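Researcher: Here's my situation. A collaborator sent me these components and asked whether they could plausibly form a single complex. I don't have experimental data yet, so a predicted model of the whole assembly would be a useful starting point for our discussion.
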Amino acid sequence: MNSARSVIGTARIASRGFGAHIPRERSQLFQRTLQRTSNPRSTPNSARHFHNNARRPAQSAVAGASEEESLQPPDSSNPALSFPCLDAQEAKTAKLSARSLSSGPEPSYTTGHHLNYLCHEPLLLDWGGILPQFNVAFETWGRLNDTKSNAILLHTGLSASSHAHSTEINSKPGWWEKFIGSGKPLDTDKYFVVCTNVIGGCYGSTGPSSLDPADGQRYATRFPILTMQDMVRAQFQLLDGLEIEKLYASVGSSMGGMQSLAAGILFPERVGKVVSISGCARSHPYSIAMRHTQRQVLMMDPKWNRGFYYDGIPPHSGMKLAREIATVTYRSGPEWELRFGRRRADPSRQPALCPDFLIETYLDHAGEKFSLEYDPNSLLYVSKAMDLFDLGRANQLQTAQRRQQNSVKLASGERDAAIDQSCNLTLPDQPYEEQPSAIPSQPLTQPVAGSGSAPPGDLVAGMVALREHPTLVMGVASDILFPAWQQREIAETLRATGNRLVRHVELGEDTSLFGHDTFLLDLEHIGGNLRSFLD
Amino acid sequence: MNSARSVIGTARIASRGFGAHIPRERSQLFQRTLQRTSNPRSTPNSARHFHNNARRPAQSAVAGASEEESLQPPDSSNPALSFPCLDAQEAKTAKLSARSLSSGPEPSYTTGHHLNYLCHEPLLLDWGGILPQFNVAFETWGRLNDTKSNAILLHTGLSASSHAHSTEINSKPGWWEKFIGSGKPLDTDKYFVVCTNVIGGCYGSTGPSSLDPADGQRYATRFPILTMQDMVRAQFQLLDGLEIEKLYASVGSSMGGMQSLAAGILFPERVGKVVSISGCARSHPYSIAMRHTQRQVLMMDPKWNRGFYYDGIPPHSGMKLAREIATVTYRSGPEWELRFGRRRADPSRQPALCPDFLIETYLDHAGEKFSLEYDPNSLLYVSKAMDLFDLGRANQLQTAQRRQQNSVKLASGERDAAIDQSCNLTLPDQPYEEQPSAIPSQPLTQPVAGSGSAPPGDLVAGMVALREHPTLVMGVASDILFPAWQQREIAETLRATGNRLVRHVELGEDTSLFGHDTFLLDLEHIGGNLRSFLD
């Protein structure tokens, strides 16, 4: 390093003041020089041009420079950093571009291995949107009894599909594989379990990637804003098709825990027991904030293209980022402390700005895995619906008023008389039945008393429809996305309505460090309490 | 809506099975049709072309369609959503492009209203990088006494500058304006307070936006990886220049709380008291994860251009996103509950995918404000340095070994003999002095006992250099970024070294709901405890 080349190695101005060797002017000169040096090429055009040479440090963008020289410019004080994580994203984009024209770059999110309930009746949504027709994709396990009194509706989390358990036509293990089956918490010897894909999602139910019947083009961001209650209404239309008048129970975790409560409040006479695991009665600002950042990073991906990416490359980088942020909220700090600590992926290497610590490679992998598994627009709409969730009375009244006003839209729309039956159902010849095998685990966690603070009156008034329903509310102390106080709020609110059949269980940090994801993992406590409550 | 236009309104296949009206094949046909319809234009070229029509829904991209028609296509079941948040980003990019060529699009991050300490001596960094020369920008308040025994070195958080308090040459209030001054916790009647900008930052100290003297071009991502200890070494070179042999105290919050400990461990004989507020002894995986997502969203902004954006448009969207994520970690859920609740910015409007709830507009504003205030590359390097922070003995030994191996780099570099004095200082004629005015607040929070679990042996061995130093450790129960257990860990580790002069204060949720940001806001408890400890 020859510091004679420095731009500031020559100025000499008389010194003055308290202990000063060179005056302020010199440093200002330094700054001005710095400013000037960097400016000659600063036009938008040169910036765009330079973008094409992204991997080349500035000073090596000269004719005839070899690739090696560009990467390790001899005139640089230190070598330029490399960015394998960006190389990987670029390679992925190139690979998606190169996919055959016949299959298209956009992946198909649904396996198609599910049942469908297709309604030609328009569905009016809470915020005034209309789905002229809609499909509910679903799967079932166990057998509906003669009195049709043993049905359990299982609600999913945001990104989960109806594939909660393997089926005859799809042997892939489901997201609650160990919780469903003969002798399991959702016991297929006793219950007929129905799990749906939410509308707004991308696993076969109508969502932003579906075709708008009005013009045969994908909805994209012409899809209307929807709510948890809209999703539940579609589910109950399916129950109509299945001729199930009343559910034995409504069960759900995470977003499904919201829907499970919403089902009981929308259709109190059609729901027996209610189970809400790691859910809430209304989304709170921290959860909204975390989902907001996920939506923003996705929408900022230029490939998102305001939702109209179905003919192009999907915004896989934005989806990856959104999932990485989500993953941070799904687990807990203490669990990561035990699992990853401060270990680096390769301690022998110099630290990098790309993933470096094990926790980073874990997040990177989780994001990468999800980036083409779920439709980006579905993520936006379903996550927004979660934000809008509020079982308070005021919100319910406003919604009812809006629905009243908007119901004229339905009346004025032209109906196609040629379609004689409005909803159609597909079911397999033989519903799937679990072969008895596993021995159920027994130990249960004792219910934990609530904090005792009075729940908000608006919420109590809003949940009064559940006053008579046996309800199980479970939460996990290490959950940061749906913190345990939110489940305490549900339980206390229900008790304040006069409900004497509320069971509240909170798993402490001594029981689970898995945070929000505990409901997917803890067969012993989540599953055990579920089973004993349903029996 | 005429459902006769639906692509699935015609198929009729014999029904079969349990209660089914139409069979599975029909839904598969539906899905296949959907797939086919979307594919004809799915080439990368059409995707790129379509990107230019981002605000137009797909079906309206026809010749002659008016703007109004594009936004409200008559054939769509619902109107397309609008995206004012993306419009704003695009407008901002256009505005940055249009900036005068003479000033350049890249903003100047430093006001220049600070002092400089410029060293022509190369600085060897912990991971083997070299800064052939470096500048430390700094500000001071109060007056150094004759024995030079009253100096307090104040360390900043990640994005804060040396401007902790207004000065004669910069009257803008500083980030700790109320904590510094006559009669304040950092009492300028007693102490000479020095606050520096960290190297790696962008407020005048050498960082990625500085010119590499080797070629006169900005370092960008040719800047070497650095550590908290590297920043501290540069600060102590400044202390040499100020002829301060020993600090009265080393004080810092957040990242500064890390540096304050690091200063005492690197130079135990040059530090009197140590204050570490909302800091840690080693970064834990959750904090690394949150910073990882910030770095990733920034690096994914195409304008980041692998760090070489100084001649173009800075990655303001990526910076905005990174700051929004950071902001989520700076405050607490309960505070937001009180401040924003579930209020929407405009409840009369239909919900939007762009910011909608007040908490979202708050995050949006925080991100927007920061997006051009701080150099994106500085964010990457300084945030990475925080991840690398670990005061454990093993890490210190490995670092010492690397430094030993790399010290040959310094010896082999050619030195410029023409520069006779290696470091130069600028100081104002009269250091700033606060006019006595405010009455100090008195109440203090009682120190809270630690959890009692044994601190890790590696950390105890690594912090043994602080065994004799009076140390104040403060934490905040509502902090999710530097959780309170991390400050308990510092205190317990120091006590385990045999230090009997540790004071540990934890502000409970009854005292502060402001989370990590409490150190910026709570003059009474943070300031009060600081004052009483320093006296």
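Model: Some features of this prediction you could bring to your collaborator: The longest strand of chain B covers residues 134-141. Chain B has a mean pLDDT of 82.
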